[in-house]
Amino acid sequence: MAENTCPVRETIIYLSGCIGPEGLTDPRGRRISEQILHMAEEISEGAAGPDHLAAIDSLIEEYAYDRNLGQNLETAGVLKQILKTHREVFISHIESKNCPSHDCGKLAPSPCQMACPAGIDVPTYLSLIAEGKDAQAIEVIRRDNPFPWVCGLVCTRPCEMMCVRGRIDTPVSIKFVKAFAAERAMSQRAYENPEKKEANGKKVCVIGAGPGGLSAAYYLALMGYQVKVIEALPVPGGMIMVGIPRYRLPREVIDREVGMIEDLGVEICYNTRFGEDVTYEELKNEGTDAFFIAIGAHKAWDLGIAGEKEFSRAIDAVTFLKDVALGDRHLPGKQVVVIGGGNVAIDAARTCLRLGAQKVSIAYRRTRTQMPADIEEVEQAEEEGVEFLFLTIPKSISGENDTITGLECIKAELVKQKGSDRLSPAPIPGKDFTVHADCVISAIGQYVDDSGMKAFEKINWTKRGTIEVNHASMETGMPGVFAAGDAVSGPATVIEAIGGGKRAAEAIDRYLNGIPQPRMPKIPVRYNIEPVMEMSAARKMTLKRPSMPMLNMDRRRTMFQQAELGYDEEAVRREAGRCLRCDICRRCGKCVEICRDKMGIDALQMGYLDFDHPVETDFRTTSERCITCGACAANCENHALVIEEKQGQRMLKLCGTILNSQEIQYCEECNAILPSAEYMQFISRKTGNMTQITQDRLLCNECQRKLSAKINVTTRPIP
């Protein structure tokens, strides 16, 4: 089997050879091969059901029951080996309706869905939102993510980074569209939990009520498990509650979505430290069958500079943000310097402004373009008055009598290090300077606090201080113990923790039911392919990503109200309609090749399909050249391109976008539908005039022949 190709596709190719001229000679073997081929094609096309594999297994056994021919036995052996080695791939195709290798054209997943760590079916829920079906969209999202509202406000949106629309103009604003739908569904009391299964009598303990732990609890509860969540903090949410400021993520949003999880019967024990207030032995005695560790990364790394431990106002951002979130909103200092370049540093700086700091600076050792923080967060911080000191390396914190007077720094330059292509900051001798400050906040990273985890003596820890797991199942080295989130990955994103929690819940269910664990991570599931939204090419091209309305600057600098006000409904519906529906069009470019190279028309100006040599895309130019011959639609495997005739118009549509619309012509004799005038002219140029008598009349081929015979005019043969 070829490397990096889909086993399902390879099986189809192999079976096609078996029934070809050079294949099996035994009629029974050929018949069985044809039956298996038919089912393999259905698996490849997403049309297979749960019984397909069992039926294929039975047919494979039939190969040897007739004449016991060597060819039949060889074919049976090959197919058995394929299914033994790659059975999970076949199952994944059937269950997820996705082919990660893109070999099975009809099942090629959309880039946005593949980029999402939780595997959310983005094109489906965008289509529903475009149609105003917000509650249905939230239902789709919560199949893979129980926190659509939270993620709609704080997700790092890897889906948007892969959005194909960005190759035309700008990516679809997936994140904020999702936030609108969640808020609207919640407001209209249409945000509902799925029906859960009957209780199965088994108990699972989740350690940590962050996004990873609560996601696992959500899916386990839906499966019928009794779930107890142990949380050291007095509030739910973990780092999304105590690490993300309220101007980005209001507490009410977290409380409402956590409340939905509690409605499923999940018990959350607050102010409870695992290993201190409750022990592993106590939980096992209560009948706990499995454990899931999602403790997060709540410890901050030290700066490692002089003076860091000498001043009470030299603090870390993790502790600072947590204290503010829990109600301690005292001003840390009037002149604050934050050290770091990530989102936590930005959050700490903007929080200081809202607490009343007169001046806030961020010192970062690299350049602006190398900052890991979201660009929108950086821009908003600058708008609010945060100053940035780039290529700045902190040396020491100066002051006396527990009062900070400044941060001693040295200017840096980027130089190439031996053995690495990445430029690294290096201090410039003699370029020392002082940043005046009375408070220094470090935000250079976090790590996992493993205190209380001694009971899990058989789990392995990496050199990075994270838990070692099988990433396909999130199993640790200790039977019945699973882990995900920051405890496994180190400080990461909310959506990554959610995805890990969901995978762990599925693995725990398999473990407690004696089902073998998968050897590869599950492929994202396409739950449905929604009908496309029809619109003109001009509208599709001119729709632009809306700008985010913001809270006025005075309030942003003084209050913790939500800074981003969200899109209005009209903007949301338009924005969702910008989606190119990559769940249907897999961007193979065959349509462009057919139109340009085979037909010589070159009507499809879709440069976004060519990732290696992208050129301008303009759907509107198709109408100027297209002859509606249908060659592109006839060669489109997924029916993304179609020719439709209705209301007197013949239209070429790409995922609902009308690329061309021409008036249908009818035969003047029998009223049969004719090709477009442009197409008839194209054929005429290719073949030459067929007859002299029909030059000024619209006639179908049959009527042309009848009329020619009637008046005894001989046509010239087709060359």
Unreliable spans are 690-694, 713-719
Major sheet attributes: 5 strands, parallel
How far is the first residue's CA from the last residue's CA? 45 Å
CATH superfamily of the largest domain: FAD/NAD(P)-binding domain
CATH class type of the largest domain:
Alpha Beta
Q: Which structural class do the helices and strands define?
A: alpha/beta
Strand content: 15-25%
Mean pLDDT: 90
Q: Tally the helices: what do you get?
A: 27
Number of strands: 21
CATH topology of the largest domain: FAD/NAD(P)-binding domain
How helical, in percent, are the residues? Answer: 25-40%
Q: Give the overall shape.
A: globular
Architecture (CATH level 2) name of the largest domain: 3-Layer(bba) Sandwich
Structural commentary:
The chain has 719 residues and is an alpha/beta fold. It folds into five domains: 7-107; 111-192 and 532-576, Orthogonal Bundle (Fumarate Reductase Iron-sulfur Protein, Chain B, domain 2); 203-298 and 448-512, 3-Layer(bba) Sandwich (FAD/NAD(P)-binding domain), CATH 3.50.50; 331-441, FAD/NAD(P)-binding domain, CATH 3.50.50; 590-663, no CATH class. 37% of the residues lie in helices and 15% in strands. The chain is built from 27 helices and 21 strands. The strands form six sheets. The chain has a five-stranded parallel sheet with strand order 3-2-1-4-15. Strands 6-13-7-8-9 form a five-stranded parallel sheet. The protein has a four-stranded mixed sheet with strand order 16-19-18-17. Helix 2 packs antiparallel against helix 3 (52-62), helix 6 (122-130) crosses helix 10 and helix 6 (122-130) crosses helix 22 (569-576). The longest helix is centred in the first third of the chain and has 27 residues, at 70-96. Residues 690-694 and 713-719 have low confidence and may be disordered.
